[in-house]
UniProtKB/TrEMBL annotation:
Protein name listed in UniProt: TIGR02679 family protein
Residue ranges of every copy of the DUF2399 domain listed in the record: 287-437
Name of one Pfam family that matches: DUF2399
Positions with biased composition (Gly residues): 13-26
Region Disordered, annotated ranges: 1-27
Species of the source: Streptomyces bambusae
Record lineage: Bacteria, Bacillati, Actinomycetota, Actinomycetes, Kitasatosporales
Positions of the Conserved hypothetical protein CHP02679 N terminus domain: 66-271
Amino acid sequence: MGRHGPHPPPGPGASGRAGAGAGGAVGVSRPAVDEARLHRLLGAADLAWLVDRLRRRLERGQPLTTGTVSLAAPTPAQRLAAERLLGRAPGGGGSLTVRLDAVDAVLRRSGISPEGLPAAVSALTGPVVPLKEARRTEEQAWTEAYAPLTLLAQDEPLLADWAARVRETGLVRRLAGTPAAARTLLDRAARVLRELPAEPARSLAVFAADTLGSSHALDDGTPLAAIALSGVRALTGHPDGTGAAWRRAAWASAGLLRDDVSSTVLTLNLRGTPALDWMADSGEPSVLTLRQLAHHPPQTAPPLIHICENPAVLSAAADTHGAGSSPLVCLQGQPSAAALTLLAHLRGLGASFRYHGDFDWGGLRIATTLLQHIPWRPWRYTADDYRAAVAAADAVPPPLTGKPALSPWDPDLASALAEHAVRIEEEAVLETLLSDLGPASGYS
């Protein structure tokens, strides 16, 4: 009978079952409801609409002894059922209106439900939990579901802001649907994020199998992958984006690789393997894959390596200085797993680093991400360098856009960017950078 179909007739001994008052669920001893007669009286399919309306009123905390309920377009069978219930026609007109006090009186006088409608509705449809109480219970369940995220934020301060955003945006509720599913989802996501970044880099599928018991647990399109990848971005500073290539790069920023050849790093005049030596002798750039770095890493490292953000700098260095250029590594944006693996390896061999990037908010984020993995000193990448570049610009530089970022190696740099509100790309200071990379340069 509708969404709350009638209970089957009671078995032996069931006639002593307690009823429920208007305040909530069954549990307190009450005068018995005669369920067999109740089902004959109110349990018919043509009165399902009435029982459903009565239950909703109970859930909202409204009384069942006063007022009316109406059905806009009743069938003849529904009108006849109401007439039999009340012993008279419920009224004329196109709609069907039933007075609640009349139904309540029938139940009490007949002895079917000595406590009237509230107990009868509970007997027919099950215990009634008021909506306010149900909402409180559900909210408590959601609070408990977020426990893995709360603990993760306490243990990993870098993820605290992210955890708060996940809670506020309702992403977990949309992905999981229920508190129980959310608790499982967040427990698994926290397990993933506690193991990151992976050092050294490793296969995403192998990591998922080891951490979660399934190599497909972090496949694209799963709720777990969506939550975990958003946490990865918070952990590594990887920028917003979409598409398969962006997701591959985002995972790689935390050391998780879809494969070992897609992640690459661009270099100039590094040595230490036969291939690198040959390219350095000719002064040509090299592209190293993560697979190459895992199987055949450089065996030597120069004492100082310059790092740039944009390939145009490295290409110009090769054109200008060739084999005489200082060793140079290009990140090509956010540092890839290959770049981080190479730089960590070179640092282990004794190399130190000087870094330059674009003077904009994105450049500061890239530099900060790199600083979280390896130490470096600024290579003309301070507030004074930025102000000098702004002053020397031949034309008005493009405006600064995006969300502000910090510059922990020189806090004044972020302030200077906010003050001047223009961006200076590496290409705009290319001549200065190239002079630092020449064989006769005294810059170190």
